[in-house]
Amino acid sequence: MKHARIVITGVGLTAPNGNSLGEFRRNLLEGVAGIERIEVRHMGQQLAGVCHYDPLRYQTKKEVRVGTRAGSISVYCAREALLDSGVDWPATPKDRVGIYIGCTEHGNVETENEIHHLSQFNYDTKFWSHYHNPRTVANNPAGEASLNLGVTGPAYTIGAACAAGNMGLIHAAQMLRLDEVDFALCGGVSESIHTFGIFAGFKSQNALATHADPHKASRPFDKARNGIVVSEGGCLYTLERLEDAQARGAKIYAEIAGYHVNSDASDYVLPNPVRQAECVRAAIRRAGLEPKDIDIVNTHATATPLGDIQECEAIRAVFGEGCPNTHINNTKSYIGHCMGAAGALELAGNLPSFTDLTVHPTINVDDLDPACALPGLVLNHPRKVAKVDTLLNNSFGMLGINSTLIVKRFVR
After folding, report:
1. What is the DSSP letter of 246?
2. Domains of the chain listed by start with CATH number
3. Residue 4: per-residue pLDDT
4. What are the strands, taking DSSP E only, across 122-277?
5. Which alpha helices (DSSP H) does 240-357 contain, by range?
6. pLDDT at 321
7. How many CB atoms lie within 10 A of CB 379?
8. Is 403 exposed, middle or buried (0-12, 13-18, 19+ CB in 10 A)?
């Protein structure tokens, strides 16, 4: 391809434990989780990861009211990423900008709210909001960001279940390489905690986490783990072709090294470790690397009893031997499962490792499940390492969608 090198030049995020990359990273190193109890319609008190960003920083009250939570998160993260990138936004041709936002699901929140509102008026549909359709279309999060930023290039969402955050970056890199756009805003967002349906669905699967201490509720790899903590969040990046970033003197966080996407084709919910391992191996090959060259593996593990074991089987199959310098961690232990935003946030949490040479741990592991024991697993305390040149980020989702994204230290 003509433009082979794609780099990350900006990061904007909101997570349950931080509203900037600096705050997020600091809390990951200090073991600060961001889980709390919220009231969920028809469900009562539930554990959830809640973002506490200021939605009015970049939107008016009317825009927030008319739009969606996912759209608001998208606007916040996009604006923060642009500021971080240092790009001259007013001078940037908006028809050459692409917005690619991964999302697990969208529209449930608004539909549930409208039905609840209608129930107060004997289900008379004249009370149904005329904003409902633009709120619930699948392209809404990217569309709201496009409206806010004045972007006239392609702006759409990518539905890839909980692999969607990685998919936003992968798709953006592809569009840049194809010369479809010159500048991309990409990543993933989630508003999942605002729909009771997702809580009810996970509860019906016996996959909803419980714990007396909210901060310990999300505990991947622990023998007592008992399910997912549903969370909201967002993380968007600015991606550029290397020559464009260098021409404007941009700082460069990392370079996209490789990626792969595949499907299990075996079950609606249960992951397939063989297909996951194939996805990881293919991404490593595409990056021109070998497993021993990967310094940090960020796991998808959601703290479900079977799902964690199966991902560990996949990781063991790829990194089990001959990879003494590969370190393995998990970010959901701090923030729960941010669904469509998960992969993008988890990558961001590890990016500073290129400069501080520290691997953030998986927290809340009081009793490691032997079936999840992996060489290189970093538990409960940060680990200083000799080098970090490569990060591998796993994100897997329902209906068997698997994604692996590898980024590397930028070297001229």
Report:
1. H
2. 6-247 (3.40.47.10), 257-407 (3.40.47.10)
3. 85
4. 155-159, 183-190, 230-231, 233-241, 254-263
5. 242-247, 273-286, 305-319, 332-335, 342-350, 353-356
6. 85
7. 18
8. buried
Q: How many C-beta neighbours within 10 Å does residue 59 have?
A: 20
Helix locations, 178-304, DSSP H:
196-204, 242-247, 273-286
Look at residue 222 and tell me whether its pLDDT is greater than 60: yes
Q: How confident is the model at residue 2 (pLDDT cuts 50, 70, 90)?
A: low
**Residues 233-252, mean pLDDT to the nearest whole number:** 97
Q: Are 101 and 197 in contact (CB under 8 A)?
A: no
Alpha-carbon span 96 to 81, nearest angstrom: 17
Mean pLDDT of 197-213: 96
The span from the CA of 380 to the CA of 19, in Å, is: 23
Asked if 211 is an active-site residue, the reply is no
Summary mean pLDDT of the chain: 97
> How far is it, in rounded angstroms, from Cα 42 to Cα 146?
34
pLDDT at residue 412, as a whole number = 85
CB 141 within 8 A of CB 74: yes
Task: Please give the distance of CA 55 from its chain centroid, rounded to a whole number.
Answer: 19
Spot the catalytic one: 162, 186, 279, 312.
Answer: 162
3 state SS of 254: strand
Instruction: Determine whether 337 is an active site residue.
Output: yes
Q: Which amino acid is at 188?
A: G
Q: What is the mean pLDDT of the segment spanning 136-150?
A: 97
User: Distances from the Cα of 406 to the Cαs of 30, 223, 317, 391, in angstroms?
Assistant: 25, 29, 18, 6
Catalytic residue among 106, 300, 327, 360: 300
pTM listed for this prediction: 0.97
Q: 194, 215, 337, 360: which is the annotated catalytic residue?
A: 337
Closest CA to 393 of 156, 220, 167: 167
* pLDDT of 3: 57
pLDDT in tens, 12-23: 999 999 999 999
Report the distance separating Cα 213 and Cα 216, nearest Å. 5
Calpha distance 392→402 (Å, rounded) = 13
Token pair recorded at residue 258: 């490789």
pLDDT tens-place string over residues 276-309: 999 999 999 999 999 999 999 999 999 999 999 9
289: phi then psi, degrees, rounded to nearest 5: -120, 175
Q: For 79-103, what is the mean pLDDT?
A: 98
